[in-house]
Amino acid sequence: MDVRLAIGFWVATALFCFQMGFTAYAQLRLPQVAAAFAHLGFPAYFRVQLAWVKLLGIALLLAPAPPRLKEWTYAGFAFDLGSAIAAHLSVGDGPQAWGWPLGSALLWGLSYVFWRRLRAAPPADVERYRHEGARQAV
């Protein structure tokens, strides 16, 4: 496993999870965020449900979960962030409103790309065996 890939993954994922955790907290606790959801036309129960689903998604990204479950978690976050951007644009909000989900989407993309590359990388034992076998063949 390439250490740079692992570091890139954990940095991007930690920043993404921190940002999503903050939005979940804000959706549950901050009245201005509740007002923003009302401005977008969403009911209060959706805001609360979305916050708890985000917290579950964060736990799944950080825990050693099966790859298919992580893939679905990444997909859920992609739908969430894309929908947030679309919702803000549909009511005419400016960059101060849709910039936050766009920045989160960039972190999501980095985390997802690093995760996919790590999954495609050969295990450390296979790589070590290849190098040892190459040295012995020479």
Q: How would the blueprint of this fold be written?
A:
Layout: H1 3-29, H2 31-40, H3 44-62, H4 67-90, H5 95-120, H6 124-137
Helix pairs in contact: 1-3, 1-5, 3-4, 4-5
Task: Characterise this structure.
The chain is built from six helices and no strands. The chain is mostly helical and 138 residues long. The protein has one domain. Helix 1 (3-29) packs antiparallel against helix 3, helix 1 runs antiparallel to helix 5 and helix 3 packs antiparallel against helix 4. The radius of gyration is 19 Å and the shape is elongated. The two termini are 24 Å apart. The model has no long low-confidence stretch (mean pLDDT 92).
Features:
mainly alpha; elongated; 138 residues
What is the average per-residue confidence, as pLDDT, rounded to a whole number?
92
Uncertain spans: none
Instruction: Note the gap between the termini.
Output: 24 Å
The value of Rg in angstroms is 19 Å
Q: Roughly what percent helix? A: over 70%
Shape estimate = elongated
Biggest beta sheet summary: none
Query: What series of H and E elements makes up the topology?
Result: HHHHHH
Q: Strand percentage, roughly?
A: under 5%
- Taken together, the total number of domains comes to 1
The total of helices stands at 6
Structural class: mainly alpha
Query: How many strands appear in the DSSP assignment?
Result: 0
